[in-house]
Structure formats: C-alpha cells, structure tokens
Design brief:
The protein is α+β, with helices and mostly antiparallel strands and 593 residues long. It has 16 helices and 22 strands. Bound molecules: aspartic acid (ASP).
Length: 593
C-alpha cells in the first residue's frame, strides 16, 4: 500500500477528477447530519475530506469513530467544493476529497491540550513536546530554523568555507561561563568539559592551514536560565586566516542579508553602520544599543560643575558624571507612585543609588525632589540642552561614567517600552559595535578579565598600554553585531603570536605554569607558523527567534530545557545508580531529592 500520492497542501481545482491518497492526522472532525467532514493535516497543510454515507456507507461508518489526532490514510476522488463553501484561508480551499477508502493507522488518546490555538501551560507543552510540535506555529518555526541553517551552509560553501566538526568532549575553554563536566571513565578522576564554544579548535584549524572554517556548532554553558538562554545552544561559528575585521564583517553582512532575503523576502541594506563601544555606552548606555528610537543620554557635568547640590558635587569631585535623558511626552504616564516604583527598581535591580527625576506638568511646573537644589541658571541650561518641554520627564544618572550610563541605558529601554516607541515596528536596525575594551577590571576579584575571551587581539595602536599595564586603555579588534538592541553575535581578530598570547594571559593574572598547564597546546601551536586569523560566532537560536517573532528561545528549539534546566519530556537530568558513579570514580554528596 502506498501511503500517499500527494501531501495535504497540494491539491487544487485543476486536480478535480483525480483519485488521490493522503496520509496524516485528523485535525478536526465535524458531523453534518451523518456526513462526516475531516480536516486532514500533514506537515505541509490541510485538505478537507468528506465521508458520504449514501455513496460509500462502510467507509462513512468507519469515519464516525475518528477522533482528533488519529493517524489515517484516505483514498478518494478530488471534487470541487460547492459554490459558497470554498475556504480562501486554505491553499486547498477550492476542493475536497470524497473518501472511497479509509485506513486507521493508529488511534490517538484523549489529548492533554488541543493542537489548535494557544496553550498557556508551557510545562505541559514541554512534557508533550511531540504534540506541541504538531502545532502550526511550531512546525513553521522548525522549518524556519532549517531554512536559516541551510542559507548559512549555502553562503559559507559558496565563499569557500569548509564545515568541520570539533570535539564535544574537550578541555575547558574560557568564554565566561561555568563548564559542564563529563567524567572520563578511562582516566579515573579526570573530566572532559563540554565546549562553551569551539574557540580553541577553530583557531587550531587555522594553524592547520584550513584557512576558512565554519560549523553549525552546539555549545554548552552551565548558566542560570533566562528567557533567551539555554544550557545548550547553537552557534554559527566561523574562523578564517589572512583576513581582516572588515572582511569578517562583510561576510556576516552577506550571510544575514541572505538569511533575511530567503526566509522573509526582505532586503536589508549593507554595509551596516559601525559605532564604537565608547560612543554606544555614552549615548545609549548599552553595548548593544537599540537605535530604532532616540532617547539619547546627554552630558550635564559641565552645567553642574559649581552646583550647590551636594549629591552632584560629591559625584563630580570623585571623578563621576552627571547625565540625563528626556523621556519626551512621558509625564502623563508617570504618577508620583510610579516614579517611586522606578526609583525602587533602579536601586534594587540596577544597583543605582537612586533615580532622580524632574517631571514637567502639561502647564510647565516642575515636580522633582531635587530641583529645589538647582540654581536658576542651572535650570535654564538643563532645559535648553535636553529640550525639556511641558509633559516631559527627565531622569538623571549621577555616578561613575559607565555606571551612570548603564543605569540610564536601562531607563531608556524601559521608557521606550512604556511609550511604545517600537510597537508594531517592522524596522530591522543592524549595527556593528566595534572597538571594545580588551580587558575589564573586576573589583571583587581584584583582577582583570577578558571582555570577550583571552584570544582577542589588542589594537596595534594600544599595544604600548598592554606593555605598560594601563589595561583600561587597551582596545580590542573585536566586534559585535546587533539587531534592534539584541546582540546576534560577536567575534574578533585573534592573537596568533606566542609571545603576545603569553602577555595577554599574564595580564589576566594567569601564571606561566598555569598557562602551560591550561593553554600549552595553543602556545606551542602558535610557535609553528600560525597564520594571522580571526572569526565570529552568531547565536542561531536567538536569530531564528527574532525572525520568527517569538518571545521565547524555547519556541525555536525542538526539545528545549525549561528554566530549571530540565527536559520535562524525558525527565532529564536523572539520578543515577551508585554503581554507575563508582565506575566513574565519583562519589555524590547530593542529598536524595
Ligand atoms: N567564541 C566566541 C563566542 O562564543 C565567538 C568568537 O570569538 O568567534 O562568543
């Protein structure tokens, strides 16, 4: 028996008179006075099947027992629908198949949720993921993900890149997260780490002379889960030799243009604008600014240089800044209580000391806990610089430069949400953020850490600062690509010289012994004619999520973990038998749950 001659989205009025066989699931079943109508669904779409008791009584009788999600095969004659009963929403809406034979391949139990429509209980969706994936949105997402991956593979293939797999069982590589460890049974007491990224391998492939590598690579980071993160995720990972920052960026612009063309039919203009990290922080308070709206942060330190206001005075005296942004027209959205709530949020969630504001009523009176401390000339200068009009709200950041900007950056995003500045917007705002700092100081650890990772190349102009220890002045040849305020990915030109790499490790406080122990293989490889190289990685899940327009990364992953890191379908992770642990030379100190 052949299961199908056509799929369920194929038939058109031109097929009327043909005998066809279709297989799929009962999407819905309606009984119109003994005539049974079934919407038969397969992964391509839906075809209406009619069971007519007067023409094929035995088949019609069987159709009475059909229930939602039964898996069936139907043979029948394609017929035109009666005038007025066509369904313009279906590609097959002009026809129906009059059944002459029906085979029930498998019955379905009562469903935990309907396959149609929205299901709000996500745990239930994850527990029955195979049913969830039958739903139209999820089928569309899976297909979209396939098409994005395919476009990426085609793009890199055409550009001469080779897709090469790198190990999943490997050594730790520092990407800033916790490693997943796998016990090595054959070397008791030793562990593999799952890769946070294929970073070192892709660089070693350059030493190997591969020149152009890419991989749709699975990565693992043991982090607390948020809406847009998973413990395991997929990167479009790229590395090339004899290349430049500009070449890598152009390659990725071409990739994104192709993906958006092939999946959404939109042309995105390239090249994307570039913005230095410093400028992004100063103007938008973020290293991934959303430039679909203004709400820029404005420098006010000079205005308050001689201010009698003690708070501002002491911030300025200790080298900080006074900055503000104008939420234009927001006054009506901010009651006194609301402003209090925002202040609370700034303190508890953003670590700010407070969130000073001035609200200008529609008639122009200023309401503010701090304005009484300002002189008339300060008020006039402030109003002019920020174009502060009746109905506007100003928010102030008074702190060290980055801290003030970061708080205002978060305020900026929240204001944009409140004012619905991007609601319904179709804009795709791409941006490269460049010239990141190479290192950042972590006061709690009293040490410097790599802003990207320790293999990132310092800018040639800033090498002297690396030598002299003025690390805060060293910029990296690193770049992030941002879409509508979301970081899609990032990369850098790498260090390929053994000595410079050792210097970078030293700046990170890694002793020569530890360098040998952890990165000896890389340092050694660099002493065998390693070519200059660089690369980039894009988060595939996040990219697909943005294209699909979904809120959760879980919606574009076939079998995701929930936000407690569990796979509710298989109940993973599970406790294991003590015997298994003994074989792995492991003793568990965990209490039984
Ligand atoms: N390995 C980096 C990451 O995972 C990307 C890169 O530098 O290519 O973020």
């Amino acid at each position: 028996m052949s299961y199908r001659t056509h799929h369920c989205a194929a038939l058109r009025p031109t097929d009327v008179g043909t005998t066809v066989t279709l297989s799929g699931w009962v999407d819905s079943r309606r009984d119109h006075g003994g005539v049974i109508f079934v919407d038969l669904r397969d992964r391509e779409g839906i075809t209406q099947v009619v069971f007519r008791p007067e023409e094929h009584p035995a088949v019609a009788e069987l159709s009475h027992g059909l229930r939602s999600e039964d898996c069936i095969t139907v043979t029948g004659l394609v017929s035109a629908r009666l005038a007025g009963t066509e369904n313009p929403k279906l590609t097959t809406g002009g026809i129906e198949v009059v059944a002459t034979a029906l085979t029930v391949l498998n019955k379905a139990d009562v469903l935990p949720f309907p396959i149609e429509g929205k299901v709000s209980n996500e745990d239930l969706r994850l527990e029955y993921r195979y049913l969830d994936l039958r739903r139209a949105d999820m089928r569309t997402n899976l297909r979209l993900r396939h098409r994005v991956t395919k476009a990426a593979r085609d793009h890199f293939d055409e550009q001469g890149f080779l897709e090469i797999e790198t190990p999943i069982l490997s050594n730790p590589t520092p990407e800033g997260a916790r490693d997943f460890l796998v016990p090595a049974r054959l070397t008791p007491g030793a562990f593999y780490a799952l890769p946070q990224a294929p970073q070192q391998y892709k660089q070693l492939l350059q030493v190997a002379g591969v020149e152009k590598y890419f991989q749709i690579a699975r990565c693992f980071r043991d982090e607390d889960l948020r809406a847009e993160r998973q413990l395991e995720f997929t990167q479009i990972d790229v590395e090339a030799s004899f290349t430049s920052e500009l070449e890598i960026q152009t390659l990725i612009e071409g990739l994104l243009a192709r993906i958006f063309r092939e999946t959404k039919g939109v042309e995105i203009p390239t090249p994307f604008p570039r913005m230095a990290y410093r400028e992004a922080m100063d103007r938008f308070g973020s290293d991934k600014p959303d430039l679909r709206f203004g709400l820029e942060i404005v420098e006010l330190s000079d205005i308050f240089r001689d201010s009698p206001f003690k708070v501002f005075q002491s911030v300025l005296a200790s080298g900080g800044v006074i900055r503000a942004l104008n939420a234009k027209g927001a006054a009506e959205k901010f009651s006194k209580e609301q402003l209090k709530k925002w202040e609370e949020w700034a303190k508890t969630e953003l670590g700010a000391k407070g969130l000073a504001y001035i609200k200008a009523s529609p008639t122009g009176e200023w309401e503010s806990p701090i304005v009484k401390f300002f002189s008339e000339s300060e008020k006039a200068a402030l109003a002019e610089r920020l174009d502060f009009q009746p109905g506007d709200v100003l928010f102030f950041g008074a702190d060290k430069r980055d801290a003030a900007c970061e708080v205002l950056g978060r305020v900026r995003l929240r204001c944009a949400e409140l004012l619905e500045l991007t609601k319904g917007s179709e804009e795709l705002n791409f941006l490269w953020v460049v010239d990141f700092p190479l290192l950042a100081f972590v006061p709690e650890e009293n040490s410097w850490v790599a802003v990207h990772h320790p293999f990132t190349r310092p800018k040639a102009d800033d090498l002297a600062h690396l030598e002299s220890g003025a690390y805060e002045n060293v910029r990296a040849v690193a770049y992030d690509v941002v879409l509508n305020g979301v970081e899609l990915g990032g990369g850098s030109i790498r260090i390929h010289e053994r000595d410079l790499q050792a210097k970078m490790f030293a700046a990170l406080g890694i002793s020569p012994e530890e360098q040998q122990e952890k990165f000896g293989h890389l340092l050694r490889a660099f002493s065998f004619g390693a070519p200059p190289h660089g690369g980039v990685a894009l988060g595939l899940d996040r990219l697909v999520m943005l294209i699909a327009g979904t809120e959760s990364i879980r919606d574009v992953i076939a079998f995701p973990k929930n936000n407690r890191g569990q796979d509710l379908l298989t109940q993973s992770p599970v406790q294991v038998e003590p015997k298994l642990l003994r074989e792995l030379a492991i003793q568990s100190t965990a209490k039984k749950p």
